[in-house]
Amino acid sequence: MTFLPGRRAALGKVLLHLLGGALLAAGAPTMAHAAYPDKPIRVIVGFPPGGPNDLIARMISNKLGENLGQAVVVENRPGANAEVAAAYVAKATPDGYTVLFGSSGALTISPNMKADLPYDPAKDFTPLIAVADNPMLLVVAATSPYKTTADIVNAARAKPGGLTYASAGTGSPTHLAGALFASMAGLNILHVPYKGGGPAMTDLIGGQVQMYFAGIPTALPLIHGGKLRPLAITGPASSPVAPGIPPVADTPGLKGYEASIWYGFLAPAGTPPEVVKIFDNAVSKVLADPKVQRQFANDGSQITDVRGEQFANMMRDEKAKWGAIVKQIGLAAKPGQ
What is the pLDDT of residue 17? Predict the structure, then answer.
């Protein structure tokens, strides 16, 4: 077939137009990722306002928004020890605009206790960055008759089933801390789960429950305000922010006791690496801020800044550790459970 010069020129223009469109389409994902973020980011927290997860998430998110040049909005979706929030984020679009601020409970403890979780922590998430790790404080109301951990142990032994301990939810680190305490000391103490640390703390102060393994960030202000009395810390040694408070492990019958909570950001599986890098670097910049570091130190939290594969490995190791404890205290998942 022979083309006339005019037709040849017209055909050339059409081909150039089609080729240009194809190149633009091929480059679209890269351009979209490079523009991240171009709209507000939602950080999903699985507990109500007032607990340590919420407080730490908001402290980081405020600065994170400045670093990314976009609003970072904390959204509370409490329920089932943060499993509701984890399931929600697992099914979200993997574009970096819906991320989970998670902790030990829903991601490394619950998988050992429930065979029918609506998500798989190892497959349904892209670990972004773990930001902090902190021990807990064994606290009682300021009006409580118990002055030491040994007082709690003696009272529980004198009246099996007569004492109660609160938790932020079944399967939460605060639950496992109490269950481990009871198991190691050979005690029968009734577990009372709440939908978060805030409600648990309210009932503890009100005398509805006798003890609670609380996150340090939420416990310290209430200790300083005369509402709570600290008896022990769940770490291996006393904390600079809680001087004079002995480790639980110092109590006879509880040698070797230790429990802590980690916190971190996770995105849905399949989140693009470019987005992950931008988000992680922005969070890391927040963690390097001297004001933020002082706040973490004042709250008794240790900054971790653990990313990607290291974060995934940490979660795997934590799951194995808590799995052994869950099995020991008889809470391991059973077929069909």
Answer: 47
Per the CB < 8 A criterion, the answer to whether 58 and 101 are in contact is no
CA distances from 303 to 38, 52, 233, 295, 306 (A): 28, 14, 18, 11, 9
Q: What is the CATH number of domain 41-134+260-328?
A: 3.40.190.150
CA torsion sign, 80 to 61 to 198 to 264?
positive
Query: What are the residue boundaries of the structural domains of the chain, listed by start?
Result: 41-134+260-328, 135-250
Please check whether the two domains, 41-134+260-328 and 135-250, share a CATH topology.
yes
Dist CA 193 CA 178 (whole Å): 11
Is the domain defined by 135-250 classed in CATH 3.40.190.10? yes
Mean pLDDT by 10 residues, the chain (337 residues): 46 44 43 76 94 91 96 96 96 98 94 93 98 94 98 97 93 90 94 91 97 90 96 92 93 93 96 98 98 89 93 94 85 67
CA 308 to mean position of chain CA atoms: 16
